[in-house]
Specification:
This protein has 172 residues and is α+β, with helices and mostly antiparallel strands. The chain has one domain: Alpha-Beta Plaits (2-Layer Sandwich), CATH 3.30.70. It has two helices and five strands. It has a five-stranded mixed sheet with strand order 1-2-3-5-4, with helices on one face. The longest helix has 32 residues. The protein is elongated, with a radius of gyration of 18 Å.
Length: 172
Amino acid sequence: MDGPTLYGLAHTLLQCARFELDACDAPPTRTYVTTGEIVWDDCCADGGQLVVSIKRTFNTDTFPATVATPLVCQNWEAAADLEVQIVRCAPTYNDDGEPPTTEQLNESALLVINDAAAVRRGVTCCLLSMLDAGVEITDAIVNEQSFVGPQGGCVGSSLFITIGVLEVCDCG
């Protein structure tokens, strides 16, 4: 194997995002790597949830375009789309049926915006370091960052990235 697996790269990006959130004194304790859709299991426990999801993998001969020709075992590389998501507990109605105060809503918005900036900064710096090292990824694009929620008591952001990878698995 020439380099880290896709899971290992996703885990490294998770750690980089977590490092930046820690620096902002806002560390979520529920952090993990997954595939596909991200389930908001418990965004209100332990300060929130930080997840890197491997959304899809594909072959490319001109990053980031998908190979549209018959596959041969040469002149292409693997690539992957990933999502880095941070969600926190959203302000909701209290036990008396009253909506959240404007102060609570403003505090939540500020936290979500700061989280988004920290995740973007951590992931971008991490990808630049990987590219400079020239051994973990072959290319990278930091795409859009969207705000998610509030839904189901959760609110946060998702950052989408595309990376060219050396190895998708270590299965031989």
